[in-house]
Every structure is written in structure tokens, then in C-alpha cells.
Amino acid sequence: MQLWLIDAFTDAPFAGNPAGVCLLHEAKSDAWMQSVAREMNQAETAFLLKRDDGFGLRWFTPALEVDLCGHATLASAHFLWSAKKLKAKEKATFHTKSGVLSARREKDWILLDFPATPAEPCEPPPYLLAAFNALGAPVFKSRFDYMIVLDKASAVRAPKVEFRLLREIETRGVIITAPSDEPGVDFLSRFFAPSAGVDEDPVTGSAHCALAPYWANRLGKTALVGYQASARGGIVRVEVQGDRVQLGGQAVTVVKGTIDA
Q: What is the CATH code of the structural domain delimited by 120-242?
């Protein structure tokens, strides 16, 4: 079975967010897929299985299965076109735990159609703001994650994270975000998910399903550019389309291999 390593949300290798992509010949057990994801030790490894109406798609971190993942979906679409499993102008259709997702190519970019997951204001759980030394900051909650809105880009670029406290919070992950200090970029973000086995995710497509509605409402425009300011970094173009969000990114294949286990 083909097993590739693909950097997503970047146009250059060794940046963006790496994802394993495995094309299955037949259905495999959850335990097997979890073992492969643990072996790959990436934020997510995606597993594809051909169907008559597209591909089944599941995502695993080294610790558990997740319901939605943007960068590994982007990597999966890139894989299908690069490995000639789809024609260049053919749309990729994925059947997932978050419904039917799709991807299409537009020149050098891949555009994903994802569900919006708007974040609503909430009371912060214990330890959340202390974990980021952000007492008093506004806190929101989406379907998956908490989101902390900070005043300055510098607080996102160089956060002071107490992972000991962060691990006490029951959530998939925590987004921190602030207005951008870069020309051509609307907002910055970071994403931390130690409870899912990923202390920091370099570029998180699914987090932008919450970030896009928030910043679209705050900035008064539906098409925006986000930069996830991790050490690897990555650009995510977003456009709010009703209850959906279009995520735009690029991807680069770094390793091509096979798995025989």
C-alpha cells in the first residue's frame, strides 16, 4: 500500500504541516490504523479507501482518531492527483465523520469545502487563560476547540504556554489568535492540542473553520488570509460561504513509500 508524507499549507518542503497519507487496498481495523499513525508520528495520518462515489477518509493522530482535519485532507487530495488516482480537473470527494467534504484544484492551489464551526463566547474553564498568561482575554468555544482572542500579534508569535495546565483542559485543542501585523495577512493563529497527542499543530485547517467566521464578522469581509505562526508556519486562504468555509492551501510531496505490515 502506498504511504506518502506530504507537507500541507506550504509551497516548499519542510514547512507547513506534514501528514501521512495511506491508500488502503481494503478496509483495515481501527487498531491497525492507529498503529500506523503512531508509527508515522505525525500530527495526523490520513487513510483513504476507494468507493464508488469517491473515497472514504479517516484521520488519526498518534493517540486517537479525530472527526475533522484540514491539512491531512489537503494532503489526501494532493496525493490523489499526484498519484494519478484522479484526473487533474476531477474533483476529490471524501466521505468522513464530518460529512461529505470535497476538494478541487485551482492552478497551484487546492480548495477544500468544509463545514463552518462558528465559535460562541463562553466562560473559560479553569486553567485555560492561566495556561497562556492571558487573564481577561475573550474566550470562545466551537464544536471542537476553545479559542482565545489576543490583542497583539506578538502574543501569538511568542506565546508563553504552560502545557502542564493545558493538559488539564478537556477539549480537542485551543486556538489563540490576534490581528495580523503583516501586509496581505488578516489574522494570525496558533493551535495546541496536547490532549490529542499533539502539543502544537503547525498549520490547522479545521481550526480555520472557526477562525474564518470570527474574523469575517470582525473585519467585515468574507474572504481573508490567515497565517498560522508556528515554527514551520503556513498560509491558509479562507472564504466564508454561509454555513461552509472554503480553505485554500498548497502542498508538497516529501516522501513516497509503501507499507507492508
A: 3.10.310.10
